[in-house]
Every structure is written in C-alpha cells, then in structure tokens.
Amino acid sequence: MLQRLFGGGRPEDDPRSLYPGSPAFSGGLPYDPSSLPGLAARWWRWACSVPGDRHPCRDATGRHAGVNQPEDVFFLAGTFGGEASRACAVPGGVPLFFPVLNVFAEDGGKGVPHFRRVRVAARLNGVDLPVTPVTNDVPYRLVGVPGNPMTPGADGRGVRIVGSGHWCRIDPLAPGGYVLEFAGDTAGFSVAVTYDLTALPPGGA
To answer: Which parts of the sequence are annotated with region: Disordered (predicted)?
Structure first.
C-alpha cells in the first residue's frame, strides 16, 4: 500500500464524562472543538477512552469502530505500526477525522514533539485527500481509562500533554460505499490502513 499511495475513568462509566462539555471530549480544551487542533485533541481523548481489548488502533476488523464516538464527528484510527484492513459503517451528516501519523508527550517544558522526514498520503475512492500538519502546543488534560494502551502507568490519572501530527478531515459523506486508504512512514515506523466504509443516511441505521 505504501508504494501505491506514494507512487514509489472506570470501565463501567461513560469516559466522555471525564471531560464535561459539549461536544463530547471537549471540556476544558484550549481549542475550538471543531477546529483542526480541537479535533486532534478530542481524538486523543477518544482514543485514550477505550481499553486495550477494544482499542481502535488494535482493531483488526473494524468491529469496534463505534465505541465511545461523539455525535458531531466520527473518528477513525491508524495502527501502532503496520497494516490493517477494516470495515465499518459511518453516520451521515458528520465529518470523519483521523491521524495518518501523530504523537504526543507529557508537557514538561521540552516543547512539542514532531516527526522528521515524514511521508503521508490518504485517498478516498482513489482520489487524493489533503493531509494537514496540526500542532497542539497549548497543553491540555488527557485521561486514560484502565487498560488503555496509550497511557500505561497512568490509568485513570490525568496528565497534561502537547502533540503534533498529520491529520485528515473528510466532509460528511453521501450515503453509499467508499474505500478509504491512508499511509505514512517516518524513521522506520510505518502505518497503512484501508477502511471499507458504508456511509449511512443522516439519522439512519
């Protein structure tokens, strides 16, 4: 796929309640929740709200894609390295948002982590999509639920983080089937993901 794209809380609680606010996962953020930095911060909060057995970056099929999703955006996920092929339905009337490559670090005054020499690409039904660098340089609070693989040793405890990444936002899709492909690599680390998406009508099931 890389060659083709580049051309050569507690489990019983709703984790969204950790950040009271509307829309979901937005409480206390120093960003507009619908801006790219706001969506990136909310994506991290979403990804850290899911325990390891259902984590979206470990999902081999897409069966857990709907876990803890907010109502105003639908988040998709990459992997912890390597390839994945997934299938899922996505709601109509809301945008999709996902990282191709992303990284965060606990705020300790050392600045925002960044990738060097990256290659990133995304396509929807064979059409190139814009992948945008986004930086979260104003620290914000992140809480990982017990068992979340992104926050080992900090289960249930909040940390303040900063981060950066290369992200893609897709406007709400018309009902139908789509193939989304995205991939990235940097310094020997690579991600390549295919989603077979079924976009539902707004309010549909």
So the answer is: 1-21
The letter for the amino acid at 150 is M
How many CA within 13 A on the CB side of residue 148?
25
Domain ranges for the chain, please list them.
Answer: 2-199
What 3-state DSSP class applies to 39? helix
- Residues sharing a CB contact under 8 Å with residue 136, sequence separation 6 or more, in sequence order: 31, 37, 40, 41, 104, 112, 161, 162, 163, 164
Q: Report the distance separating Cα 181 and Cα 102, nearest Å.
A: 17
Backbone φ/ψ region at 2: left (φ over 0), alpha (ψ -120 to 50), beta: alpha
* Burial (CB count within 10 angstroms: exposed 0-12, middle 13-18, buried 19+), residue 158: middle
Residue with tokens 């040793």: 153
- List the structure tokens of 19: 């950040």
Q: Look up the pTM and report it.
A: 0.90
The dihedral through the CA atoms of 36, 140, 53, 114 has a sign that is positive
For the chain, how many helices (H) and strands (E)?
A: 2, 9
pLDDT digits (tens, 9 = 90+) for 4-42: 333 333 333 566 667 777 788 999 999 999 999 999 999
Structure confidence by residue, pLDDT tens digits, 87-139: 999 999 999 999 999 999 988 777 899 998 899 999 999 999 999 999 999 99
